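Researcher: I'd like a candidate sequence for this fold, 285 residues long. If you have to choose between options at a position, lean toward the conservative one.
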């Protein structure tokens, strides 16, 4: 009963957040998940240029789940804002614990740790920030359910903190326009850390996340794309060519059994992201 009431409340929030925009269900996006045998999936896309929201699987797009390593976006912002990290070159020494992710087994800067998605690095960042300051920013931003009970270096990994894909897109949209309650500098640095693909035709910014709940892994991709268009200025401006960036904000989320190692799900989530964005027109085909 409680879960149904919670879902209804979240759905109302979802509709409310999109009250002044067009909302459309894209059931056909399911084909990109179906071809890999993915059954539990959701995708939401906010087209800022047309003030529209498009989604596949509304129920999942309004369901709160642990953010896993997508929380590194938020964690980085707080670290910069509180000067725990003076900049993205803050080095944290390797603790000498050998882990399966070999790229974590060395000293890392924050920019390197973000790219490698180093959990130990960001756990240390969270410890340095401390629970009081972390809770302050969770409340101020209204990030998901704002729950960080328990250890300060585990709450985004153990299903304590939860956020919906819809809320994720709202969060990165505010980041893109520097509308979060952080300095412009902090938001600008984190945006540059999110840049994963840069071409003359588009820029793609995102953070992935993978979390384990019971016998399933949850796979996230959260971020935004910029489609770049070149155009000529009106006559009388010396035929000057200008550039215009069109932003699109997205959150992709699906789950698969831990036991299913038949495919590279880490790569597949990026492939699906490209396919959906291309079909919609947020990336060039």
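Model: Candidate sequence:
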């Amino acid at each position: 009963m409680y879960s149904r009431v919670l879902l209804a409340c979240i759905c109302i929030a979802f509709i409310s957040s999109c009250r002044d925009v067009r909302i459309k269900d894209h059931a056909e996006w399911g084909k990109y998940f179906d071809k890999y045998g993915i059954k539990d999936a959701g995708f939401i896309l906010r087209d800022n240029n047309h003030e529209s929201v498009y989604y596949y699987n509304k129920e999942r797009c309004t369901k709160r789940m642990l953010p896993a390593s997508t929380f590194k976006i938020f964690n980085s912002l707080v670290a910069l804002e509180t000067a725990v990290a003076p900049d993205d070159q803050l080095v944290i020494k390797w603790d000498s614990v050998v882990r399966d992710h070999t790229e974590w087994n060395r000293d890392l800067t924050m920019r390197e740790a973000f790219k490698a998605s180093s959990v130990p690095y960001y756990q240390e960042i969270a410890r340095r920030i401390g629970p009081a300051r972390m809770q302050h920013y969770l409340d101020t931003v209204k990030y998901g359910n704002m729950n960080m009970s328990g250890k300060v270096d585990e709450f985004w990994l153990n299903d304590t903190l939860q956020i919906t894909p819809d809320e994720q897109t709202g969060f990165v949209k505010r980041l893109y326009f520097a509308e979060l309650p952080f300095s412009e500098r902090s938001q600008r640095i984190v945006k540059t850390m999110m840049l994963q693909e840069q071409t003359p035709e588009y820029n793609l910014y995102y953070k992935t996340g993978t979390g384990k709940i019971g016998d399933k892994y949850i796979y996230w991709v959260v971020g935004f794309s910029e489609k770049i268009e070149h155009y000529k200025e009106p006559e009388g401006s010396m035929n000057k060519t200008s550039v215009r960036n069109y932003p699109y904000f997205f959150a992709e989320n699906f789950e698969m059994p831990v036991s299913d190692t038949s495919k590279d799900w880490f790569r597949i989530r990026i492939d699906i992201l490209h396919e959906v964005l291309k079909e919609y027109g947020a990336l060039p085909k």
